[in-house]
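re: the backbone from monday

yeah here it is again, tokenized this time
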């Protein structure tokens, strides 16, 4: 429903790039930790496996020391065999523990990813319509696909890696201290420098990651818009395919630069850490040699080799630990973008104890309704008082921008009124539970949306448990069954992206069949036939007449030929009711409605356009 397009202006737009930075990192970290809380039992098991693996892992150098200092020099073959077997078992146990912790942590990570995706999708389902009119579809898709997908490695492995590497580092350092505290201090001398470098790299990558994700969202939006069926048709018929390709190439080129910068951010600094860590054994041998020359207590060969082995074992978890810090900083940028969506204000909410209607009778009342999209442009509707009795019909007419479609948004509570109230059977729609409200109202608009699924699946969207007989009956009532039956696959025919395999009139009749299947007591028709030619309008109007029988019907009219039989006609002008009455009463009053009728009659008497674009004559 493209009319009276709203402008969504919350007090503080969370997606505004000029707004202050999002929540502080400690708060973000608390929110991230909260995502894992439902799985703390499994994470505790992972923690135990990690600790056990680290403790078993540091035993190997001590076994090696005994081999070099005792078993070999003393020729004790039995002890040698036992120690060698111990080293083998240590490797086996460490590997088994590693596989188990990977399995559990990956499962937990994927569940967290699922929870996050579902939470974002559910949040978007609650957003006001205006959010989607101002946000590019590709931007929304990028948040769910790219941003959450980019966090996958962090969510599935970083937490475990952090605990694993931290435990390994602590266990290894303790073991090194047990062997020789002096060499341990030498080994840890540069640790503060390494931590400082890691933090600098992390902040740099976080900043670049934010820029990269924004660019990925922009590119995804370009793809979504230009490679949809509508985009392809427009691009080719306007001869703009090459221009669109160039525009996409420019967006992609920006992403290339950001990807390279992201990959290289801090790479030289981290390489320096790697070089220093790799050179540490030489430093230890040098320090041990100096100690021996100065008369310090001597080190056995086994102790020295065991210490260097531990030091080498410290290298991988230490570097991984520093890299994990960088990874967390990078992921914080992605989490911040996801939390922005989760923190978006939800305007339409359900009461704590809502009213439930089993089956509404269908009386619709608007009492002194006022509505404004934003304070800058003033009210869209003011002082609207309308009552439509159950089973009655109301037609709303008026010039473009008069507030017709806005009124149709308020009845099903797509927006809440700014003042007054909208009621069904005397119950304020704000007091109804969402299910009751949805069951009570059916909407058929000018723009019919169909999913890329079969005809039957599109119809069952209104009633998932509908039988084949119910679907066929609804299609017959909507004057579309014969056409569906003539298709090679019948009701299993794929409708195509946004229903492009069907004409406008056929899509409208499918929408009507879908609404018939839902069987709502209140029906809203928002200019449902305004874009159709004469022949198609006649077929669709027959379907609408069948759909409207016995239901409360509110028609937002563009063609006045569709409203003459309404029980009540309301003429809106500037967001206010200018006139009301029946067709005959308003013609007799010779006011705004009569002027609209004369305008339509003059348009109908004008030279006819080509047959495929012929407008419907006005029958008054």
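seq for it, each position gets an aa:
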């Amino acid at each position: 429903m493209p009319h009276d397009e709203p402008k969504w202006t919350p007090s503080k737009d969370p997606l505004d790039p000029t707004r202050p930075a999002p929540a502080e990192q400690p708060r973000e970290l608390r929110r991230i930790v909260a995502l894992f809380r439902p799985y703390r039992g499994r994470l505790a098991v992972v923690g135990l496996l990690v600790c056990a693996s680290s403790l078993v892992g540091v035993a190997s150098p001590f076994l090696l020391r005994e081999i070099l200092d005792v078993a070999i020099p003393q020729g004790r073959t039995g002890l040698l065999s036992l120690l060698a077997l111990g080293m083998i078992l240590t490797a086996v146990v460490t590997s088994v523990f590693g596989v188990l912790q990977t399995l559990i942590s990956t499962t937990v990570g994927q569940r967290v990813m699922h929870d996050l995706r579902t939470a974002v999708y559910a949040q978007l389902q609650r957003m006001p319509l205006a959010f989607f009119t101002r946000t590019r579809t590709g931007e929304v898709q990028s948040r769910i696909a790219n941003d959450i997908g980019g966090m996958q490695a962090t969510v599935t492995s970083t937490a475990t890696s952090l605990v694993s590497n931290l435990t390994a580092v602590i266990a290894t350092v303790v073991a090194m201290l047990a062997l020789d505290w002096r060499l341990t201090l030498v080994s840890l001398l540069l640790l503060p420098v390494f931590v400082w470098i890691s933090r600098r790299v992390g902040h740099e990558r976080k900043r670049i990651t934010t820029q990269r994700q924004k660019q990925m969202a922009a590119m995804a939006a370009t793809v979504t818009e230009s490679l949809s069926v509508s985009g392809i048709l427009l691009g080719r018929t306007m001869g703009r395919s090459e221009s669109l390709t160039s525009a996409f190439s420019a967006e992609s080129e920006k992403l290339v630069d950001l990807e390279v910068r992201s990959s290289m951010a801090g790479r030289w600094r981290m390489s320096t850490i790697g070089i220093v860590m790799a050179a540490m054994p030489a430093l230890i041998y040098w320090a041990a040699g100096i100690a021996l020359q100065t008369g310090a207590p001597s080190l056995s060969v086994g102790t020295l080799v065991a210490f260097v082995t531990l030091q080498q074992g410290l290298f991988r978890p230490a570097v991984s630990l520093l890299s994990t810090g960088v990874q967390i900083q990078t992921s914080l940028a992605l989490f911040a973008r996801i939390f922005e969506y989760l923190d978006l204000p939800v305007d339409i909410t359900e009461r704590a104890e809502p009213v439930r209607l089993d089956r509404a009778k269908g009386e619709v009342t608007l009492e002194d309704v006022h509505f404004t999209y934003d304070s800058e442009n003033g009210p869209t509707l003011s002082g609207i008082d309308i009552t439509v009795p159950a089973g009655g019909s109301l037609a709303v007419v008026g010039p473009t921008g008069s507030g017709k479609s806005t009124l149709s948004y308020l009845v099903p509570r797509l927006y809440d009124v700014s003042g007054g109230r909208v009621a069904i059977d005397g119950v304020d729609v704000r007091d109804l539970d969402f299910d009751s409200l949805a069951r009570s109202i059916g909407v058929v608009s000018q723009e019919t949306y169909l999913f890329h699924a079969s005809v039957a699946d599109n119809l069952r969207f209104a009633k998932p448990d509908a039988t084949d007989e119910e679907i066929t009956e609804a299609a017959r009532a909507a004057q579309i069954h014969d056409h569906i039956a003539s298709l090679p696959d019948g009701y299993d025919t794929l409708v195509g992206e946004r229903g492009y395999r069907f004409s406008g009139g056929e899509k409208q009749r499918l929408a009507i069949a879908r609404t018939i299947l839902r069987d709502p007591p209140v029906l809203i028709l928002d200019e449902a036939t305004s874009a159709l030619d004469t022949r198609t309008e006649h077929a669709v109007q027959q379907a609408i007449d069948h759909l409207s029988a016995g239901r409360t019907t509110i028609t937002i009219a563009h063609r006045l030929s569709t409203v003459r039989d309404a029980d009540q006609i309301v003429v809106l002008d500037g967001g206010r009711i200018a006139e009301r009455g029946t067709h005959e009463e308003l013609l007799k009053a010779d006011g705004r409605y009569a002027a609209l009728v004369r305008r339509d009659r003059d348009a109908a008497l004008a030279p006819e356009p080509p047959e495929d674009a012929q407008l419907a004559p006005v029958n008054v």
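Strands lie at 364-371, 381-388, 393-397, 419-424, 427-428, 441-445, 522-526, 552-556, 568-573, 576-581. The longest strand covers residues 364-371.
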